[in-house]
Amino acid sequence: MLLKGRKIIITGGPTREWFDPVRYISNASSGKMGIALADESNNISKNTCFIHGPISEDLLKNKPYRCIGVETTNDMLESVLYEIEDNSVLIMCAAPADYSPVKKSDEKIKKQNENIFIEMTRTPDILKNVSAAREFRKLNNLFVAGFAAETSNTEEYALSKLNEKKLDMICLNDVSKEGAGFGCDTNILTLFTRTGSKVELPILTKDKAASEILKQIEKELLKRNY
Ligand code: PMT
C-alpha cells in the first residue's frame, strides 16, 4: 500500500511549557512547514490529520483535513500515540519544547531585583515513545519520519537521531542557513532514509519541499514491497 489510502499524521508548530499563568518556554516554529506537509498530504490521502501546537489561526483557516490543537509536549505525545495505527505514516515536523519548568506557579511570579532560576526537567521524547509503542502495540507497517533542526555537525547529528529514534527517514534542515528552518517560507533539506538514501534538495518553498518529502516516502514504501 502506497501513500494513497493511508492515514497520514503530520505534526507542526511549537509547544508551550508554562511556568506561571502568563509566561512560558517555547520556540520560534511558525507551523508553516507542518501546514505545507498537511496540505500536500491531503492532496494524496483524504485521511490526513494535523496535530499542531499554538500557531496562527490564519494558517489553519478552511483546512479540509482534521486539525488537532495541543499546547504542551505531553499533550502532543498523547495525541500522536492516540492517532498512530497499523499502516499509518507519521511525519514529526513539530518543534516540541524539550524542557518544562519543574514548578508552575499559580500566580504571576513577581519581578525582583535579583536573577531568578527556573528549574527545568526534560519533556518526553515523542518519537522515542512512538518507537516503543510500535514494538509494544505491534503496529504493522508504520512509517515514521522525523526532522532534525541543526546548526553544526549537521549530517552527523541527523544520522544519530535517525538511529536513536529508530526512524524510517529524517529531514535535516541546517537552520543556520538563510532560507532554511524556522519562520521563513522556504527550506533547505537533506533527506536521509533507513535504507541508506541521501537526497539533497536545493532551497525550495515549503510547499515544494513538502512534496519532495512525500515523494521520497512513497519511494521508501515501494521498497517495502508489501
Ligand atoms: O514551523 P516552521 O517555522 O515552518 O519551521 C519548521 C521547523 C524548522 C520547525 C521544522 O522544519 C523542523 O525542523 N522541525 C523539528 C524541530 C526539532 O524539534 O528538531 P529536533 O532536532 O530538536 O528534534 C528531532 C526530532 O524529534 C523532530 O522530528 C522533533 O519533532 C522530534 N521531537 C523533539 C522533541 C521531543 N520532545 N520529542 C520529539 O519527538
Description:
With 226 residues, the chain is an alpha/beta fold. The protein contains six helices and 14 strands. It has helices at residues 32-44, 57-60, 73-83, 126-136, 154-164, 206-224, and strands spanning 8-12, 17-20, 23-25, 48-52, 66-69, 89-92, 99-101, 120-122, 143-150, 169-174, 186-187, 189-193, 198-200, 204-205. It has an eight-stranded mixed β-sheet, with helices on both faces. A two-stranded antiparallel sheet has the order 2-3. A two-stranded antiparallel sheet has the order 7-8. A hairpin with a 4-residue loop joins strand 12 and strand 13 (198-200). The radius of gyration is 18 Å and the shape is globular. The protein binds ligand PMT. Residues 12-13, 29-34, 73, 92-96, 98, 123, 125-127, 146-149, 161, 173, 175, 181-183 line the site of ligand PMT. Ligand PMT binds at residues 12-13, 29-34, 73, 92-96, 98, 123, 125-127, 146-149, 161, 173, 175, 181-183.
Q: Rough shape?
A: globular
Radius of gyration: 18 Å
How many helix segments? 6
> Which hetero ligands occur in this complex?
ligand PMT
Summarize this structure briefly.
The protein has 226 residues and is an alpha/beta fold. It contains six helices and 14 strands. α3 runs parallel beside α4 (126-136).
Give short descriptive properties of this protein.
226 residues; alpha/beta; binds ligand PMT; eight-stranded mixed beta sheet; 25% strand
